[in-house]
Specification:
By secondary structure, this protein is an all-beta fold. Helix content is about 0%, strand content about 45%. It has a 3-stranded antiparallel sheet, with no helix packed on it. The protein is elongated and about 40 Å long. The termini are far apart.
Length: about 70
Amino acid sequence: ACAVEIEWAALLEDGREISRDTHLGWSGANKRDILYRLSVEEFNPAATYTLKAHLVSKGGTDSTGDIRIRRPE
């Protein structure tokens, strides 16, 4: 019922930010600009990777959704 404004998304490797995409996205009834591109220069299989984002609720907190992570082919 409520939209979410996405300000940025970032990828952390062992707690250290390695990639960030900063642009406004809108995930409500009319989605726009919700694809965030993050990159890993050199993948470390022993590392822990974390996705972090800054979201702002618009109109309340009745909002749900999915996050999908795709690897380039």
